[in-house]
Task: inverse folding
């Protein structure tokens, strides 16, 4: 019987947000794969948060960065799209031009989803960019002490142990729903990739949308989690890699993570500039037995890229492993506990 993956491009769906997502997508862009990026719409910080406050649209920052990562236009277009006005420009201070364009087109087209599809054509995006929902969502968290907060920036700034998160529409009247192309892409995927990115504020907000988490669990694709290299202040301090996976599984009430990519190269002591990278806390500790107890296949190697006194994923190495997984026999033998 002919292997369908040998006759067509593998379909890879990457789910997340924040700064980690574009690193993976940028390295996937030039590979012979069909890429779909599902991007969180629950951001409320920076330029995105200000635009969301004054214009009732989905925060555009994560979508802007993903679009640049997948765009195949001259660099001057990308640079212009990413340009952020200086703080001395009182009216536009801190705003990225791309954020303003996405917000404007969202108003013109009556929603973020159609706006992003149209802009993707203009930017010659190699792949698909799907906002996880077509409306701005609000992230909520319950902490271990029973208290609750709403808003991504408020939740992170609380520096408290998070028990669970969920999302609501901004008006709190309706249950958030994913647009159908998001569900279709997940169900038709050959591989689903989560991360890298903030566990509670970039990855889980997508999975908490009605239909998205269910589709990820039901999809025949293997689910791969790219574990963070560093823990994050206010979210995952003192977490092991197994703790990250445990939180994901608990939120979806099932051990749905099949494979975990774990960095094993040590971050040099005194290398991290914790003032510049104030969200980084400490290297994620390893608990390989804890991962295996949750039914995970563990791929551990050097995924580390040291630059600018920060610790990040080496996108080339990560993508190399993702593509290796697609070619392995076990890849199509999805295992659930």
Result:
């Amino acid at each position: 019987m002919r292997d369908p993956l040998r006759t067509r491009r593998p379909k890879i769906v990457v789910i997340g947000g924040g700064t980690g997502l574009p690193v993976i997508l940028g390295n996937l862009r030039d590979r012979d794969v069909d890429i779909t990026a599902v991007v969180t719409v629950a951001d409320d910080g920076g330029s995105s948060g200000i635009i969301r406050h004054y214009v009732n649209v989905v925060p555009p920052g994560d979508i802007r960065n993903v679009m640049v990562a997948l765009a195949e236009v001259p660099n001057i277009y990308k640079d212009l799209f990413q340009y952020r006005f200086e703080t001395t420009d009182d009216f536009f201070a801190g705003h990225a031009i791309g954020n303003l364009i996405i917000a404007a087109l969202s108003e013109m087209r009556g929603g973020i989803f159609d706006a992003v599809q149209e802009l993707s054509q203009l930017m010659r995006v190699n792949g698909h960019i799907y906002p996880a929902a077509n409306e701005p969502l609000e992230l909520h968290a319950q902490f271990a002490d029973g208290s609750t907060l709403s808003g991504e920036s408020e939740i992170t700034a609380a520096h408290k142990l998070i028990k669970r998160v969920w999302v609501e529409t901004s008006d709190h009247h309706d249950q958030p729903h994913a647009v159908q192309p998001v569900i279709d892409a997940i169900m038709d995927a050959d591989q689903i990739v989560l991360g890298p990115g903030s566990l509670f504020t970039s990855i889980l907000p997508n999975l908490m949308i009605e239909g998205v988490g269910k589709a990820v669990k039901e999809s025949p694709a293997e689910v791969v989690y790219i574990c963070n290299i560093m823990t994050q202040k206010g979210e995952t301090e003192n977490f092991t890699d197994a703790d990250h996976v445990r939180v994901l599984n608990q939120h979806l009430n099932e051990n749905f993570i099949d494979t975990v990519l774990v960095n094993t190269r040590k971050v040099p002591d005194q290398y991290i500039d914790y003032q510049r990278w104030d969200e980084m806390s400490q290297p994620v500790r390893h608990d390989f037995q804890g991962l295996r107890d949750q039914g995970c296949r563990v791929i551990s190697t050097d995924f580390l890229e040291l630059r600018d006194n920060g610790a990040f994923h080496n996108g080339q190495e990560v993508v190399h492993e993702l593509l290796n997984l697609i070619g392995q026999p076990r890849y199509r033998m999805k295992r659930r506990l």
Confidence is low (pLDDT under 50) at residues 45-56, 330-337. The longest helix spans residues 97-109. The first strand starts at residue 11 and ends at 16. Residues 4-40+132-332 form a domain with the Rossmann fold fold (CATH 3.40.50.10680).
